[in-house]
Amino acid sequence: YTVSVQPCLTCTARADNFVPGIGTVGFSQETDPVFHERFGPLVIKRENHMFLAYLDHLDGMTIRPGEVKNLMLTVEASAFSLQQWLNIHIYGAEGVEVRPGRRLSLPLQCTLGSPAKIPLELYAEQLPEGQIELLIDISLEGRHSYEVIKTRLFVMP
Q1: Cα-based torsion angle of the residue sequence 145, 110, 86, 79 in order, rounded to the nearest 10 degrees
Q2: Which of 9, 35, 60, 96 could form an S-S bond across to 5 if both were Cys, CB 3.0 to 4.6 Å?
Q3: What superkingdom heads the lineage (predicted)?
């Protein structure tokens, strides 16, 4: 089933979810094969002590002026027993529009295998030559837990 947060932000769940409880802090998802093993080769993975974050470059590492670039940000809880709120701040080159926005907040469920998935679209009429960099800052509300994903997209004429 799917629980919709906003039309473009969803939290998905599986029937065989593991619910972490007291004493599972530091539980490694690497011991339990979950959804992230289905990612392709163009994925950046970041491990925090509270969550795992993945940025999937769905249609390659290039961007062209006037075309939409699709990315998928996936965040999965790994060590808490209550729902937490994610704050996501996206920093990038001026003139690059980020949809659904540069600042997002959404719930992160406490069950392993229930990731928050955020489809991102980048669009710009004008791009500098060479490459652009994008920083995605992911933090948990009220905690000193954060992770930064940095990616570089190559500008094609």
Answers
A1: 10
A2: 9
A3: Bacteria
Please classify residue 44 by burial: count the beta carbons closer than 10 Å to its beta carbon, then call 0-12 exposed, 13-18 middle and 19+ buried. middle
Q: Which of 56, 81, 82 is nearest to 151 (CA)?
A: 56
Residue 10 in any domain: the answer is: yes
Query: In the chain, how many domains are there?
Result: 1
Asked if the structure places residue 19 within a domain, the reply is no
Q: pTM for this structure? A: 0.74
CA 137 to chain centre: 10
Sheet holding 62-63, edge to edge: 62-63, 146-155, 131-140, 84-92, 103-108
Range of the domain at 115: 2-14+24-155
Closest CA relative to residue 156, chosen from 135, 131, 133, 134:
131
- 69 close to 122: Cβ distance less than 8 angstroms: yes
